[in-house]
Structures are given as structure tokens and as C-alpha cells.
Design a protein that fits this description.
By secondary structure, the chain is an alpha/beta fold. The chain has a single domain, classed as Periplasmic binding protein-like II (D-Maltodextrin-Binding Protein, domain 2, 3-Layer(aba) Sandwich), CATH 3.40.190.10. Helices cover 33% and strands 17% of the residues. The protein is built from 6 helices and 7 strands, in the order αααββαβαβαβββ.
């Protein structure tokens, strides 16, 4: 019985998102902004469509270009929030490419700045950052989520 309690304790510790403890106040309070390259034809995306992209269920833009989904690492507090709000999933959850046994892979980066830099270089990339990290001097733009930008009343990625 004692052995089972130890195993249960270890499992609970492993499942606890410790990155939340070390997340900055901004990371926990800032809305999540979805960004694309400034030349991307999209100006708005629905939350369900965004979820389909990050689940590997949608892999092409309306122009036919392959979507490059940019993710933060599994330990990032912002990824925890994004996965909970958009995907209704844990930050380490994986998804299969529809109709295959193959894992859908995103490009994982370490920080808001690295996501911004990557999206600024690749017109078919999409990523998410803390809204406060958005830099209008970079060749990126914010996507509206169901008609709303971060900070607007009713914005869904708070």
C-alpha cells in the first residue's frame, strides 16, 4: 500500500505544471495574441479553425501554402494557457495527423521573441505570443479571433 502511495505521489508531481509557478505576471495576465507574417492574406481566424491548425487537422492556408504552426515549448506557461483555452488539452498532449498513425509536429521555440522572429521570416507561419510582446516594427500582424483583437471586450484568448 505504501508503495502505491509513493507511485501516486510521483505521478501527481509529474503532472503538475510547475512552469505555472515560475511564469511571469505578464505571462499569466496578458491575453494571448495570434500572429502571422504581414503578407499573409488572413486577418482573422476562428478559435475552432485555430484549434484545427494546432491539432494537425488543417495544414494549408487558403492560398494553398503549407501552414507552419509555431509552438512554445511544453514547459512554457503561455503554452499551458493556449492549450487549455484553444485546444482544451494539456501542454504535452500530442495529436495525430488525421487518417494516419503519424504524430503532428509543430515547430517548438523558447520565447515570444523567437516566435516573433520566426513568423517574421516565414510568410506561411502562425504562432502565438503574449499580447504585450507584439512589436509593430516587425513584419508581423495580429489576427483577430472571431472578430476581436487582444484587449477588446469579448476577446476569447484571455
Amino acid at each position: 500500500m505504501r508503495y502505491q502511495k509513493v507511485i501516486l505521489s510521483i505521478a501527481l508531481i509529474a503532472l503538475f505544471p510547475f512552469s505555472i509557478l515560475f511564469a511571469s505576471d505578464a505571462e499569466l495576465k496578458n491575453p494571448i495574441a495570434v500572429i502571422v507574417h504581414k503578407n499573409n492574406n488572413s486577418n482573422e481566424i476562428g478559435r475552432n479553425e485555430l484549434a484545427r491548425i494546432y491539432r494537425g487537422q488543417k495544414d494549408r492556408w487558403s492560398t494553398g501554402q503549407k501552414i507552419l504552426a509555431i509552438n512554445l515549448t511544453a514547459g512554457a506557461g503561455l503554452r499551458h494557457r493556449f492549450y487549455r483555452i484553444v485546444l482544451d488539452a494539456g501542454p504535452a498532449e500530442t495529436f495525430l495527423i488525421p487518417g494516419t498513425p503519424v504524430l503532428f509536429r509543430t515547430i517548438e521555440l523558447q520565447s515570444n521573441d523567437s516566435v516573433i522572429s520566426y513568423v517574421a521570416r516565414f510568410p506561411n507561419a502562425i504562432g502565438y505570443i503574449e499580447a504585450g510582446a507584439w512589436d509593430k516594427s516587425k513584419p508581423i500582424k495580429l489576427l483577430k479571433i472571431n472578430g476581436k483583437l487582444p484587449g477588446e471586450e469579448g476577446y476569447e484568448l484571455e
